[in-house]
Each structure stands twice: as C-alpha cells, then as structure tokens.
C-alpha cells in the first residue's frame, strides 16, 4: 500500500511508523525544514520538505499512484484543501483530521467519508469517565466486514421519513444527529437536509450508500 501523509504531527509520525512496520510505502510531506531533516534521520520513508497543500508538491509525491492520503496538518482548512486535491486525482482513500467540529461537518458535506475529530472523541470519553459511565467506542466493536458509517442527507431527502429510504441488504439505520439532538431510528424521524445519518452496514455496500445519499442523485432507493 502506498500512503501519503501530510505533516509530521504526532499523529502523522505514529501512523508513518505503524505503516512502515507493516511494509507499506510511506511518503511524508513536512513543511518545516528542521522537522523534515529530523524525520529523514529517524523514519525509513520518503520525506518531502514542502507545503502539502500545493498541487505540484502532491504531484511530486506521485499522488496519482497513491492508495491513500492522510491530511493531518494543524489547520482544518488545509486538510480539506488537500482532500479536495486528492479527489481530483481519484485517490481511493482520503482521510482528513479536524480539530473543529464545524469543519468536520463541512468535510462530510463535501463528500469526505473518513473524517477524524480526535478532540471530540477524547473529550467525550473523558467526560463519560468523570461521570462514572463505562462507554464503548463503536470502532472497537467492529468485526469482520461490518462497519458503522455516517452520511449527510442531501436536499432531495428533506421531508422524507427515514424508514422510507431503503438501504442495501444487511444494512440498518441507527439514528440521526441533528445539531445537538440525536433521533433514534425507531422513532422514524423525518429527514432534514444536512442531517447526519448513522448506519450499520457491510463494507461492500458503503460506496453505494454514500452515492445514494448525495444530493444530486435521482434515485433514492438503494436495494
């Protein structure tokens, strides 16, 4: 697997080390020259000292041949820009990190499937721990090819009861996030544009579900 990581943050470095250990080809782009020099001496991968939001630099990293790109800079806007460039090169897997929950929503509305908001996940876990609640992250419960995903409902779904939007076989709704509210699937909420819909499905149906919930799709059913 060929993976481009943009910026040598703590997350980027740890991910690079893990990927290198598993035999993946890693290209790490770091804008700080001193940091880039240090990483070139400690990591067994290609280090490019440049600005990762520039298309010519991503082309230098041979983005057209990448299996995945991880945008984990300290600026949410830059990560989204990198993701948009990667889309133009049809990179199969695009992972974006965000610190601001608002940019997480923006990224999802732009069609990015893999958006990681570490501060939210960590703060929620600590909050529940302080309240004496033992929570389990959904990601730790995944087995085999089962996945938990979220999609942003397009305009065409506004006013449609959730149960009327069909999913592929072996898939089921969990509920809807609407601003600060969570609406359970069993309550059969009516969809509003911009709702974040949580779904349990199989890996083979993920792309079909994302395509089906795009606002520009003509067909709502996903049998």
TrEMBL record:
Keywords: Ion transport, NAD, Potassium, Potassium transport, Transport. Residues 133-215 form the RCK C-terminal domain. The keyword Phosphoprotein does not apply. The keyword Ion transport applies. Residues 1-116 form the RCK N-terminal domain. One of its GO terms (cellular component) is plasma membrane. GO terms for molecular function: potassium ion transmembrane transporter activity. SUPFAM superfamilies: NAD(P)-binding Rossmann-fold domains (SSF51735), TrkA C-terminal domain-like (SSF116726). Part of a potassium transport system. This is TrkA family potassium uptake protein. It comes from Methanogenium organophilum.
């Amino acid at each position: 697997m060929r993976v481009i990581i943009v910026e040598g943050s703590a997350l980027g470095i740890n991910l690079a080390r893990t990927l290198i250990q598993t035999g993946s080809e890693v290209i790490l782009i770091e804008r700080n020259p001193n940091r880039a020099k240090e990483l070139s001496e400690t990591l067994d991968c290609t280090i490019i000292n440049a600005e990762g939001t520039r298309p010519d630099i991503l082309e230098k990293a041979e983005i057209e041949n990448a299996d995945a790109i991880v945008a984990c800079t300290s600026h949410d806007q830059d990560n989204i820009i990198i993701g948009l460039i990667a889309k133009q090169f049809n990179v199969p897997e695009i992972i974006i990190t965000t610190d601001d929950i608002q940019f997480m929503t923006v990224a999802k509305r732009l069609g990015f499937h893999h958006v990681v908001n570490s501060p939210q996940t960590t703060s929620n876990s600590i909050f529940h721990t302080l309240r004496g609640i033992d929570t389990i992250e959904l990601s730790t419960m995944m087995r085999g090819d089962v996945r938990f995903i979220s999609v942003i409902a397009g305009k065409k779904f506004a006013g449609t009861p959730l149960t009327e939007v069909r999913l592929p076989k072996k898939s089921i709704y969990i509920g809807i996030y609407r601003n600060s509210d969570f609406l359970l699937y069993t309550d059969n909420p009516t969809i509003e544009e911009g709702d974040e819909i949580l779904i349990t499905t199989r890996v083979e149906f993920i792309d079909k579900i994302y395509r089906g919930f795009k606002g520009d799709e003509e067909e709502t059913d996903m049998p």
